Amino acid sequence: EVEEIVPTGSLDPDTIHLPGIYVHRVIQGEHEKRIEQRTVRQREAL
């Protein structure tokens, strides 16, 4: 999962560290990235 798809050749393969033996293909999905919202509890009255 990535935040941004970059053009082929933009990344130096020598700086990428992942077990490539397990990577068969990379695809760009058409899913909508939902915005995460921070939720916090309100302070309790003293």
From TrEMBL:
The keyword Membrane does not apply. InterPro entries: CoA_trans_fam_I (IPR004165), NagB/RpiA_transferase-like (IPR037171). Keywords: Transferase. The keyword Transferase applies. Gene3D superfamilies: Glutaconate Coenzyme A-transferase. GO terms for molecular function: CoA-transferase activity. Coiled coil: none annotated. This is Coenzyme A transferase. It comes from Roseicyclus mahoneyensis.
